[in-house]
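Task 17 of the worksheet. Students: predict the tertiary structure of the chain below and write it out as structure tokens. Keep your answer in the requested format; marks are given for formatting as well as content.
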Amino acid sequence: MKTYRTSELARAVGIHPNTVRRYEEWGLVPPVPRSANGYRRYTQKHLDCLRLARTVFSAGFASANIRQAGRAIIDRAVADDWGGALEAAYALQVLIQAERAHAEAAASLLERWVQGASADATQQRLRIGQAAALLGVSIDMLRNWERNGLLDVPRDARNGYRLYSAAEISRLRVIRMLSRSGYSITAILRMVIQLDRGETANLRQALDTPRPDDNAYLASDRWLSALEAQAALALKVIALIEDVIRARTAHRHNAT
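Model answer:
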């Protein structure tokens, strides 16, 4: 059986030897046997797992759920259950499709609202506690959205209390759906700044395109693009696992 030293395995995958050792520490490859002189002796099994882990990690993770699903794929491969890894890869694909559907639905609601379709029909002005209860969010969240510039709530001239009309509630429903669908506060703020300037075209693009002065570090700052990249990654992961299964099946047939 062919074996590899750390440097050989690293060269085969195109990474630094230290990264190989780090992946081993993280449990992303199976336990590695050692030769009589103490050198690690990697096999095709380790090479397959290392390539898989490298592919899964290559685009980062758009969300915690996707990160967990990606790790599940690797864990099945490390356990030498490549059929289970393939099932987990398809589960990842379904998860990404669902996240994309939520993100697209939120963007569509935004576009309909901007075109004049009301997102609420509240008849009376609500105080902040009533608005929070209606929307199913916390009072602190409403204050945080206002503090971050996502909306400006009129106040009662007599006592200074916030008063939310149908217009504010409509806007909040859109903000809430965007937030729950994965868009970051930074992305939503880019959109509302453009909206409040009277620029109602290309708001979906504003959600997905950081400005030059933005500190855009999160996938949720360009959520639609991040999910598109994750969808392409899922296809690569599926193809890689299928290649491993084919190669192992052919090797087994040849051995018999």
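Marker's comment: The chain has a mean pLDDT of 91. The CA atoms of residues 99 and 111 lie 19 Å apart.
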